[in-house]
Amino acid sequence: MKVIPLLPCASIDEMLTFYSALGFERTYRQTKPNPYLAMRREDIELHFFGIPGFDPTESYGSCLVFVPDTAPLHRAFADGLRALYGRVPLSGIPRMTRPRPRRNVGGLSGFSLIDPGGNWIRIFPTNASPASPAPGGKLARALENAVVLADGKGDVAQAAKILDGALARVTDASAVERVEALAYRAELALSLQDPTRADAALAELHNVPLTADDRDRLARTLATVEELCRDRTP
């Protein structure tokens, strides 16, 4: 049995260019009587139909993709986006989020790709067990809520508001929790095209004193911050 999502778009040619950059191959294309495109990368198969005048910002198109490990696919997509756009887009359409645990899906670490048709391709690990909730304080819980809103729902402005409130109120958070929150706040600021707030969050992050153990625990986040700085719009 096979199930293939059929997703809307304004232009199948735009989708062809986009998904080709991500390592997909065209398996079918037609322009008449209706625009239609089929793309495949290994076991991931996506089909698209064109609608004249379609507005990607109004799209409800979405699908779930389960893969053995999300990290290699995210790296491959990021490389493709950098080749196509010179960076990994964090705002507008298209864009891509970064892998991080999602509280609303049992702590599974996933990421979302929003394509030129406004379709949300939500990618999660196939065989991973839901993570046990990690102990954390108020700032960590605010970060979890912000991730659900921004990465899962697309409400970046509300996520930033929640995180700003927590960063201002919570003074007893651990260094690790504060760095995690500030790193994500910088990403949200860039998604909102607010480089001033991103610079402020990154400056505060770099001033947080960290032990060697803290740096080990934050290795992935600190690497993400470096990527974030590299991918910033000139």
UniProtKB/TrEMBL annotation:
It comes from the Bacteria. InterPro entries: Glyas_Bleomycin-R_OHBP_Dase. This is VOC family protein. It comes from Micromonospora sonneratiae.
